[in-house]
Write a structure and sequence with these properties.
The chain is mostly helical. It has two domains: about 55 residues; about 90 residues, no CATH class. It has seven helices and two strands. A hairpin with a 2-residue loop joins strand 1 and strand 2. The protein is elongated and about 110 Å long. It starts with a helix and ends with a helix.
């Protein structure tokens, strides 16, 4: 009986040892597969970033600078309103020329007036772009009240003088 029990114990031990080894190998394979998929995703992400960094922007965009500064800090709120290709076309200026004029202490209203462009035309161009951005991809339309509120904000931005 003891010989039989001993053989059975060895058999069970061998079975458990074999099962444990097989389980450990499966865990290692799963870990290797996870690492490989993470490397693939990382490589794809790196390639996407490289592609995007080589693309040229479709519209002039300030990153480190803004048209306006407040307390020596960029004013990205105003920049969002003025970074507008239709505005550049209306004023017949490049973004750099507009920035230079603003840096001399002129407001957008004064710059437009010097080119015989009405304040209302400037407001309409900027408001149109802002509404387009705000409701992009939505079926909802702007209400008259929203448009009037936006025009007040636009007027505030275009009357601002940096000096």
């Amino acid at each position: 009986m003891s010989k039989k029990n001993l053989i059975m114990a060895f058999g069970i031990s061998a079975f458990l040892l074999g099962s444990g080894h097989t389980y450990a190998k499966q865990i290692q394979k799963d870990a290797d597969a996870s690492v490989k998929s993470a490397q693939i995703v990382s490589t794809q992400t790196d390639e996407t970033i490289k592609q995007k960094s080589n693309e040229q922007p479709t519209q002039f965009s300030f990153t480190d600078e803004a048209f306006f500064t407040t307390n020596s800090q960029p004013d990205f709120f105003a920049n969002d309103f003025l970074n507008n290709s239709d505005l550049f076309s209306l004023l017949d200026m490049t973004p750099g020329e507009l920035k230079q004029n603003l840096d001399t202490g002129k407001s957008v209203v004064e710059i437009a007036a010097s080119k015989n462009i009405s304040t209302q035309d400037v407001i309409e161009v900027i408001a149109k772009e802002q509404l387009k951005r705000q409701f992009e991809g939505e079926e909802k339309e702007a209400t008259e009240e929203m448009i009037e509120d936006l025009k007040v904000k636009v007027l505030h931005v275009i009357e601002y003088k940096s000096n």
